[in-house]
Amino acid sequence: MANPWLSIIGIHPSGLQSLSAAAMQDLNEASLVFGSPRHLALAQVGERGREWPVPFSVQPLLQLRGQQKIAMLVSGDPFHFGAGASIAKHLQPGEWRNHPQPSTFSWITGELGWSQEHIHCLGLHARSLATLTPLLAQGERFICLLRDAAAAQSLAVWLTEQAWGESPMWLVSNAGSDEQVIRTGKASDLAHSLLDQPVSAPVAAAFEARGGQGLSQAPGRPCDAFAHDGQITKSPVRAMTLAALAPRKGECLWDLGAGSGSVSIEWCLAGGTAVCVEQHAARVANIAHNAARYAVALEVVHGDSLAILAGLKPEPQSVFVGGGFTQALFNALRARLTSPWRLVVNAVALETQALLLELHRSHGGQLLQLQWNEAKPLGSMHSWEAARPLVQWSWSCP
User: Fold this and answer.
1) Is the peptide bond before 134 cis (omega within 30 degrees of 0)?
2) How many CB atoms lie within 10 A of CB 308?
3) Which of 4, 165, 219, 286 is deepest in the core (most CB within 10 A)?
4) What is the pTM of this model?
5) What are the Tetrapyrrole methylase domain coordinates in residue numbering (predicted)?
6) How would residue 2 be classed by pLDDT, with cut points 50, 70 and 90?
7) For residue 230, is it left (φ>0), alpha (ψ between -120 and 50) or beta?
8) What is the pLDDT of residues 81-104, one digit of tens each?
9) Residue 360, φ and ψ in degrees, nearest 5
């Protein structure tokens, strides 16, 4: 469109003086201006202002699509953790004009002398603090946009509870404006001092991770890293299972008979999504707990895998069955899935192992027998204790 109907304008806490001439022209020509109360006040739009509904929705703006000149005000860069993408996904390119400002991340990295390309920039307005868990490692730097002043104190407390209390923190209120205030200290100190002396909003937190131990980046993490009742794929087997499943970023896994969900958690930490099916309620609760702890994109379905298979969505690129595998389940999977998919089955029971031997004979794939011993106490000394032999079948359906 030669004449876009919508102007998406990033506005700085300093107000109108920070806007470019082009942004000012679009703002002045707009018959209506959407924004938060704070942004509308900064832009001095008076009766033309329209506050976003609560909860947030772009529908009032979309109802005016193409009818008149409209502007919307957002913080900083509209398409970097801003509301620009929320509206653009409903429109066609060319319907809007973008007027970005330096983001909060840009202001803070400039204040601290950090290189933005080496920083974890996160929006935590509506996300769990556990989102940080897979990213935390010694010396890693973070800038987090926060919902309000209370969230700053919650972040300091959470870091302390996760053994990262030595991390130096910078809490920046009104970044880049004349009212900018920076509060500094260790996370453990701020966790206490913020109770009596809270910061003012809008606020963002920067910190450099110190003191804790980062999450291992290799599959086969220790079993005690997951809540479970003993029904869990053991670490060595899990490492080999993940290698066979071959996770790729953005792919979906169906984990049937998921137990603790440990395989799915590790799949998601590698960049995928997962659907876990488990028929035992207590184990469903463990899976949900583990998913929340690591803030992964995982859905838990309570039920029998074969009974609910027809309704599972979305279709997966890989399927893992750690328990309860049968010929009927294999047949149902082949009938249900239409796109290419990979299957990995682990079996301890002799009957299931016999089935895998027959499926390997008739369909091919890779068949492994996994055996290992662990050193266990034997009186005042130690001895090898053999784990049950496990058969793993990997197969790809074109």
Assistant:
1) no
2) 14
3) 286
4) 0.86
5) 6-190
6) low
7) left
8) 888 998 999 999 999 999 999 999
9) -65, -40
Q: Which CATH number fits domain 105-209: 3.30.950.10, 3.30.70.1230, 3.80.30.20, 2.60.40.420?
A: 3.30.950.10
Identify the band that residue 43 occupies on the pLDDT scale cut at 50, 70 and 90: very high
The tens digit of pLDDT for each residue in 269-290 reads 999 999 999 999 999 999 999 9
Nearest 10 degrees: Cα torsion 132, 134, 138, 139:
-60
Whether the CB-CB separation of 206 and 172 falls below 8 Å is answered with yes
- Paired with 185 in beta bridges are 169
> Is the Cβ–Cβ distance between 112 and 118 less than 8 Å?
no
Q: Is residue 319 helix, strand or coil?
A: strand
11: which strand partners?
75
The CATH superfamily holding the domain 223-397 is Vaccinia Virus protein VP39 (3.40.50.150)
pLDDT of residue 56: 85
The CATH number of 6-101, from 3.40.50.300, 3.40.1010.10, 1.10.10.10, 3.40.50.720, is: 3.40.1010.10
Domains 105-209 and 223-397 share a fold: no
Nearest to 298 by CA among 260, 263, 323, 268: 268
Q: Give the residue extent of every domain in the chain.
A: 6-101, 105-209, 223-397
CA distance 341 to 333: 10
* Nearest residue to 86 (alpha-carbon basis) of 42, 55, 112, 108: 55
What mean pLDDT comes out for the span 237-266? 96
**CA 182 – CA 313 distance, rounded (Å):** 47
Mean pLDDT confidence for 244-268 = 97
CA 92 to chain CA centroid, Å, is 27
DSSP secondary structure string for all residues of 2-40: -S-SEEEEEE-TTGGGGS-HHHHHHHHH-SEEEE-HHHH
Q: Write out the H or E segment, with its range, that includes residue 370.
A: strand 366-370
Whether the Cβ atoms of residue 369 and residue 389 lie closer than 8 Å to each other: yes
What is the identity of the amino acid at 151? A
Distance CA 168, CA 185 (A): 6
The pair of structure tokens assigned to 118 is 């080496």
User: Could you read off the pLDDT of 304-330 as tens digits, one per residue?
Assistant: 999 999 999 999 999 999 989 999 999
